[in-house]
């Protein structure tokens, strides 16, 4: 079942690609192939694979229970929040928050999470920004 | 002779203090990443690549670091295979079969040291193989025209589909998805925007690093979240730490045989360490399992897969360095690293950037010596790493991944896109899609399309040029064979089985 749903979604992507390529207008063409042919060829090949999966899907996959899915969603939410706050609050602050929350999500003790979050956030900033010269943001909000 | 003087030049590059330090760091980090279950070479290389780039390392140094990480992971995977019965990376799956029984019989030290030496022998033989064959192959590949190149890439994709066992359709589909993802952005031939849906952020295309980190770091974190409760019980290393002369002489031939086999498999574009170690183990079992000791803790059962997976990892550098077509998922990531530095991979690489190719080969020799030194006396340090809890490890991976991706373009759009790709990657992995083909497709896409278009411009649109030379035709035939033969083989096995049941009934 999972395979069939995926195959349908993938077919939809193929259709979108084909439509996009249909609408694409190429002002100048110096060569016989142009930019449309390869993506069209790919989407046809993909569609062929999807049709095969529709007809002969693999045995069904056991998805994780609801509790796991919620934790997974929490992890994704946390990552998205981290991505948002990364340059807004600055690397040190955003990282301390993210590491602490994620360590709790992965079943760590709160004090252990606190220690590792402070360590990763502050030592990480000095190591990468100061020593290794990878420029990290200090926060748009404060400057 | 010429090869050896070039190799000497390579050693001059690899022995520079910066490169030597990076190789040591990479070996250590690689072993740790390799022994942690879940994280393998492809994750290690993926996480460190953006950092190397953001740190403005020169290309040869970045490649040396990544190669050391790759080698280190192949060494590290065996530690958790032996002590936990959990392969640290996919190449170490077969090492659990005899390695863990040995550990439970109190021979953990013997299993660890013999596997370290096997890894060394495998990698050393394969690196010598690279030194001998890489220049040959690359001078041969200089005669490739665009049509031959296109056929070669089709062959690489086909081997990946045919070799990845039970899921050829999913491997192929994954590869096509990777190719398609690379179509997003401005077309270099005509300057039109393809599949950007009007988004300004997508006009430059999807960044390679974003795809790599999304697929191999973010999705891995989601997988690790499922296993937080499962604790690992490691076998304590006690007793003899080193193998004795009898154990060594028993497995010496095994190592050499498996190394040759692994090297051969590694050189094939597409087939990687997992396939090599599985084939080496079953071959060795067929040849030398006279007393039926395989599977119950036979040293040769540990030596064979380890020699093979390291040999194949090294061997997979050959197609990457000489043809510009990666031999494994991990070398696909490294090939992408070259393109990040605006270096076009291919047969010309050896002539235009000898310091990169020979520096890399020399550093493989150095990395292996460092690794065997680290892995026998310092094994205690690494076994202690097995107890790092995920609650520390995963946030650390997240931080390092974000630093790497942000460090390159300072764009938070990239960070968000990376998370989305990570979720997609997780779903794909749940659906049993292998992730290696996706990245292979993504890396090959531009060259593949360019060569197709160039070939057809030469012939003014006549597709016959794609089959115009004997070389191109033989590549197409080989591609068709690797796709069809496994199907025929499986079908004939099934037919044989059903005939048997019919006779039985």
What report would you give on this structure?
The complex is a heterodimer of chains A (143) and B (505). Chain A is mostly helical and 143 residues long. Helix content of chain A is 71%, strand content 0%. Chain A has 5 helices and no strands. Chain A is flat, with a radius of gyration of 23 Å. Chain B starts with a helix and ends with a helix. Chain B is mainly alpha-helical and 505 residues long. In chain B, helix 4 runs antiparallel to helix 11, helix 6 runs parallel beside helix 20 and helix 9 packs across helix 10. Chain B has 20 helices and 2 strands. Chain B has a two-stranded antiparallel ribbon with strand order 1-2. The mean pLDDT of chain B is 87. The interface between A and B is large, with 71 and 63 residues.
Tell me the series of helices and strands of chain B, N- to C-terminal. Answer: HHHHHHHEEHHHHHHHHHHHHH
Compute the number of strand runs of chain A: 0
What is the topology, as strand order, of the major beta sheet of chain B?
Answer: 1-2
First-last Cα distance of chain A? 52 Å
Radius of gyration of chain A: 23 Å
Number of helices of chain A: 5
Summarize the biggest pleated sheet of chain A: none
The best one-word shape of chain A is flat
Question: What is the strand content of chain B?
Answer: under 5%
Largest interface: A-B, 71 and 63 residues
Count of alpha/pi helices of chain B: 20
Q: Portion of residues in helices of chain A?
A: over 70%
Order of SSEs of chain A: HHHHH
Task: Summarize model confidence as the mean pLDDT of chain B.
Answer: 87
> What does the largest sheet of chain B look like?
2 strands, antiparallel
Structural class based on helices, strands and sheet pairing of chain B: mainly alpha
Derived from helix and strand composition plus strand pairing, the structural class of chain A reads mainly alpha
Mean pLDDT of chain A: 90
| Rg result of chain B | 22 Å
Q: So what's the oligomer here?
A: heterodimer
């Amino acid at each position: 079942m999972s395979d069939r749903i995926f195959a349908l979604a993938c077919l939809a992507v193929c259709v979108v690609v084909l439509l996009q390529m249909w609408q694409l207008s190429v002002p100048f063409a110096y060569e016989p192939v142009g930019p449309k042919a390869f993506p069209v060829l790919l989407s046809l090949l993909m569609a062929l694979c999807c049709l095969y999966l529709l007809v002969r899907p693999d045995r069904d996959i056991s998805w994780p229970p609801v509790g796991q899915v919620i934790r997974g969603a929490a992890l994704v939410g946390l990552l998205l929040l981290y991505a948002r706050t990364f340059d807004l609050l600055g690397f040190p602050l955003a990282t301390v928050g993210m590491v602490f929350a994620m360590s709790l999500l992965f079943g760590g003790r709160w004090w252990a999470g606190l220690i590792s979050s402070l360590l990763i956030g502050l030592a990480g900033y000095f190591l990468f920004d100061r020593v290794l010269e990878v420029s990290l943001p200090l926060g748009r909000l404060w400057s | 002779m010429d090869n050896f003087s070039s190799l000497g030049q390579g050693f001059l590059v690899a022995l520079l203090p910066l490169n030597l330090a990076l190789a040591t760091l990479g070996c250590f980090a690689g072993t740790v990443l390799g022994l942690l279950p879940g994280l393998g070479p492809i994750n290690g290389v993926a996480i460190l690549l953006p950092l190397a780039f953001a740190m403005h390392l020169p290309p040869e140094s970045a490649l040396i670091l990544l190669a050391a990480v790759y080698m280190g992971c192949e060494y590290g995977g065996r530690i958790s295979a032996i002590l936990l019965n959990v392969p640290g990376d996919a190449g170490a799956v077969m090492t659990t079969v005899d390695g863990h029984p040995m550990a439970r019989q109190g021979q953990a030290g013997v299993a660890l040291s013999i596997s370290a030496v096997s890894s060394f022998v495998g990698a050393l033989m394969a690196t010598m193989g690279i030194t001998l064959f890489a220049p040959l192959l690359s001078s041969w590949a200089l005669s490739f025209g665009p049509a031959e190149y296109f056929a070669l890439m089709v062959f690489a994709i086909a081997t990946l589909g045919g070799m990845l066992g039970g899921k050829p359709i999913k491997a192929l589909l994954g590869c096509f998805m990777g190719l398609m993802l690379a179509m997003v952005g401005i077309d270099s031939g005509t300057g039109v925007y393809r599949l950007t849906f009007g988004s300004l952020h997508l006009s430059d295309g999807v960044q390679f690093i974003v795809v790599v980190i999304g697929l191999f770091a973010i999705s891995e974190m989601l997988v690790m979240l499922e296993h937080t409760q499962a604790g690992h019980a490691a076998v304590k290393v006690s007793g003899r730490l080193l193998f004795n002369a009898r154990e060594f002489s028993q497995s010496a031939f095994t190592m050499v045989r498996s190394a040759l086999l692994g090297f051969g498999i590694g050189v094939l574009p597409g087939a990687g360490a997992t396939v090599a170690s599985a084939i080496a183990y079953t071959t060795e079992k067929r040849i030398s399992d006279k007393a039926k000791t395989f599977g119950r803790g036979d040293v040769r059962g540990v030596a064979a897969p380890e020699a093979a997976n390291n040999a194949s990892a090294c061997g997979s550098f050959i197609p990457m360095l000489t043809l510009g077509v990666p031999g494994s998922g991990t070398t696909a990531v490294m090939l992408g690293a070259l393109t990040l530095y605006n270096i076009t991979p291919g047969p010309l690489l050896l002539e235009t950037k000898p310091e990169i190719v020979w520096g890399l080969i020399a550093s493989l020799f150095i990395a292996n010596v460092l690794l065997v030194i680290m892995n026998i006396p310092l094994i205690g340090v690494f076994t202690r790493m097995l107890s790092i809890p995920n609650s520390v490890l995963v946030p650390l991976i997240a931080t390092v991944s974000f630093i790497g991706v942000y460090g390159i373009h300072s764009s938070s759009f990239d960070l968000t896109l990376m998370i989305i790709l990570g979720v997609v990657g997780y779903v794909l992995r749940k659906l049993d899609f292998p992730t290696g083909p996706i990245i292979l497709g993504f890396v090959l896409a531009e060259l593949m399309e360019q060569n197709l278009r160039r070939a057809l411009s030469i012939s003014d649109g006549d597709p016959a040029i794609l089959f115009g030379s004997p070389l191109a035709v033989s590549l197409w035939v080989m591609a068709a064979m690797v796709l069809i033969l496994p199907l025929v083989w499986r079908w004939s096995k099934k037919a044989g089985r059903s005939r048997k049941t019919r006779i039985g009934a």
